[in-house]
């Protein structure tokens, strides 16, 4: 397994994708540094104008638009606890930016999935052969990617994707569902 850190670590993976890039998120909260200000403003009802956002956000959106423009399916599945954490409520309010950039986002309430079907770690899967685990410190800070093409690990991730993705609820439907509005 290769561990990579720093800026631009996702670009080669997305540019090498031939058919699909799938992201599984299984945590209810993260501590990503460039989200702190956006989350703070959301909490206080302040706006966060595009020109104020970190450059990394625009770079990500540009990469998603470019990748989707090549015909690559961009899929993101968020397995979440209901009622939602504070962080998940913020994500729900901001997911339109993901879909506008070309991603298909689905949500899966954790209680609707079998625990044994939900991996313990987040990952990106490119096509069916490259897995990039997103690694985080104990405080939720992003620490980089651990990348592998090991066929056995890839098969486990394909199985998780193929088991969970069909049960996910499309973002627009989910945003209007009882799960999104649970107390």
Question: What's the short story on this structure?
Answer:
By secondary structure, the protein is α+β, with helices and mostly antiparallel strands. The chain has helices at about 10-15, 35-45, 55-70, 85-95, 95-100, 150-165, 170-175; strands spanning about 1-5, 20-25, 75-80, 105-110, 125, 130-135, 140-150, 170.
Protein topology:
Layout lengths: L1 E3 L6 H6 L3 E6 L10 H9 L10 H15 L3 E8 L5 H9 L1 H5 L3 E6 L13 E4 L3 E7 L5 E7 L2 H14 L4 E2 H5 L8
Parallel strand pairs: 2-3, 3-4
Antiparallel strand pairs: 1-7, 2-5, 4-8, 5-6, 6-7
Verbal overview:
The protein has 183 residues and is of the alpha+beta class. It has seven helices and eight strands. Strands 1-7-6-5-2-3-4-8 form an eight-stranded mixed beta sheet, sandwiched between helices. Strand 5 and strand 6 form a beta hairpin. The longest helix is centred in the middle third of the chain and has 15 residues, at 55-69. The radius of gyration is 16 Å and the shape is globular. The termini are far apart. The mean pLDDT is 93.
């Amino acid at each position: 397994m290769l561990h990579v850190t720093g800026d631009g670590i996702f670009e080669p993976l997305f540019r090498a994708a031939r058919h699909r890039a799938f992201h599984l998120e299984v945590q209810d909260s993260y501590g990503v540094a460039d989200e702190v200000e956006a989350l703070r403003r959301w909490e206080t009802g302040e706006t966060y104008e595009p020109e104020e956002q970190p450059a990394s956000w625009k770079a990500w959106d540009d990469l998603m638009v470019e990748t989707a423009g090549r015909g690559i399916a961009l899929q993101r599945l968020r397995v979440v606890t209901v009622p939602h954490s504070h962080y998940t409520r913020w994500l729900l309010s901001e997911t339109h930016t993901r879909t506008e950039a070309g991603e298909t986002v689905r949500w899966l309430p954790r209680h609707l999935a079998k625990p044994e079907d939900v991996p313990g770690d987040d990952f990106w899967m490119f096509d069916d052969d490259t897995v990039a685990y997103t690694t985080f410190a104990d405080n939720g800070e992003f620490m980089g990617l651990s990348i592998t093409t090991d066929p056995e690990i890839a098969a486990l991730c394909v199985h998780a994707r193929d088991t969970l993705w069909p049960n996910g609820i499309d973002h627009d439907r989910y945003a209007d569902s009882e799960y999104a509005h649970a107390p």
